Amino acid sequence: MFEQELLDKLSQHINYFPRKEQAILLCLHAIQDHYGYVPRESLRPLAELLDLPLNHVEQVVAFYDMFDRETPAKYRIRVCVSVVCHFLGKQELLKALEKTLKIKPGEVTPDGKFKIVPVQCLGACSEAPVFMVNEDTYKFEGEEKLNEILSRYT
Ligand code: FES
User: Fold this and answer.
1) Judging by beta carbons within 10 Å of its beta carbon (0-12, 13-18, 19+), is residue 46 exposed, middle or buried?
2) Which of 26, 43, 95, 124 could potentially form a cystine with 13 if both were Cys, beta carbons 3.0 to 4.6 Å apart?
């Protein structure tokens, strides 16, 4: 079961909607914010809270790449790999991140601080190539600027 603080947050989301299942995305975000990822063990208690079958909740988590089901990191760097960003410099962005952080996509830095997560369109195509650090969105403007941005996250 969930810790009281998280349970209060989930109940708040569930009570907001006319039908419990409508709160599923907000609840998954709350779980991810709490743990840094969506632990597998959290899915059954969430399904029970929402009165949904477990496999429904599992499918939702699997469908959205904004939910991280594996090793957590303090900061998730989501890199858009969709078509516009692909053609406007996604590869350079990934290379710069890999060089700076010394990790590959899907990996976490040894201090647990950063994780590179390739995702589909982040909805900011006019700024391509785009990446996000947790909830902050940035346009990739070269390695130097990237390092400056990353240094803000301590
Ligand atoms: S294609 Fe990258 S943000 Fe849309």
Assistant:
1) buried
2) 26
